[in-house]
Automatic annotation (TrEMBL):
SUPFAM superfamilies: Metallo-hydrolase/oxidoreductase. Pfam families: Lactamase_B. Residues 21-196 form the Metallo-beta-lactamase domain. It comes from Methanospirillum purgamenti. Coiled coil: none annotated. It comes from the Archaea. GO terms for molecular function: hydrolase activity. This is MBL fold metallo-hydrolase. Keywords: Hydrolase.
């Protein structure tokens, strides 16, 4: 029995959802078979291939990474001989933080994961004309977020840009995130699919916009209404603080900056209050300044 569930959206496009509720999108083009995101590893991808075995499809697979977060790219290694497409910053970001994420979340892998970078990158847009499939840069959730538009059936895969009830804020430019979400609101798609929330409606995009605006304005937010996501809000606030200090630390350490050591400074930093995290980071900043002055 397969523990992957399939939602058929059109004769050629379907959502495949794993037991942890994370989805990937499959588009059976006439020339290529497109797979948006690769879940947690090779074992998950074998399940996708089993599913594909029951459908007639072009042999050649094209992989798309909606962004470089670990829960969307660990299955890339199953397709190292295929085209793996991502935004240019997706390749950079995965190169920089891939090992850190693999260490931090090692218990989540499905099969043996080797970090495999996108081998084809784009800047604003990339179109497979004959298959009517388009990849569009849409920064916000992360610097490298992109969407996949099935133009033929008007289906848009948004990755983690929209999430119920709130998105993860993993990029300091919330202004760009808001632009992207406004763009999605008017995007000519009949169906939108989120990697963690399945088929979504525009009201959820509006709710995500309201949340991000409130965070941006420093408003106090009652996270009890977020249910299982109540800790995501604190994580978001603390990630923003970490980003802010990361910039300063990079400026001080220059080429000596090490992503893994900086982000491993405070394991489970989402569990700290924002005040405590700021105090810890200020101390760290003072220490590295001291070391620099003694050099
Ligand atoms: Zn995700």
């Amino acid at each position: 029995m397969s523990d992957i569930s399939c939602t058929i959206l059109s004769p050629r496009t379907r959502i495949l959802t794993f037991d942890d509720n994370i989805s990937v999108l499959l588009i059976i083009g006439s020339r290529f078979t497109f797979l948006c995101d690769t879940h947690l590893g090779p074992e998950s991808m074998k399940k996708v291939q089993n599913e594909l075995g029951t459908i007639s499809h072009p042999e050649q697979m094209v992989i798309f990474n909606s962004h470089s977060d670990w829960d969307h790219v660990w299955g890339n290694c199953e397709f190292s001989h295929n085209l793996i497409i991502g935004h240019s910053t997706c390749r950079d970001r995965l190169k920089e933080r891939g090992e850190y994420d693999l260490i931090s979340h090692s218990s989540m892998t499905r099969g043996i994961v080797t970090i495999t970078l996108p081998n084809m990158t784009f800047d604003s847009r990339l179109t497979f004309e004959e298959d009517d499939v388009e990849f569009i840069y849409a920064p916000g959730h992360t610097i490298d977020s992109s969407v996949c538009f099935d133009r033929k059936d008007s289906i848009l895969y948004v990755g983690d840009l929209v999430e119920d009830p709130i998105p993860y804020l993993d990029y300091e430019r919330t202004d760009l995130y808001l632009n992207t979400l406004e763009m999605l609101l008017t995007f000519p798609a009949d169906i939108m699919v989120s990697a963690h929330s399945g088929i979504i409606v525009r009201d959820l995009i509006r709710a995500n916009i309201a949340y991000i605006q409130a965070v941006q304005e420093g408003k106090s937010i009652d996270n009890s209404r977020f249910g299982a996501y109540d800790n995501v809000h604190q994580l978001n606030l603390n990630t923003r603080i970490m980003f802010c200090y990361e910039k300063e630390v990079r400026d001080i350490l220059k080429e000596k900056f090490d992503f893994l050591s900086f982000w491993s400074l405070f394991p489970n930093f989402e569990k700290k209050s924002s005040d405590e995290l700021e105090i810890n980071l200020k101390q760290y900043l003072m220490e590295i300044e001291k070391v620099r002055h003694h050099q």
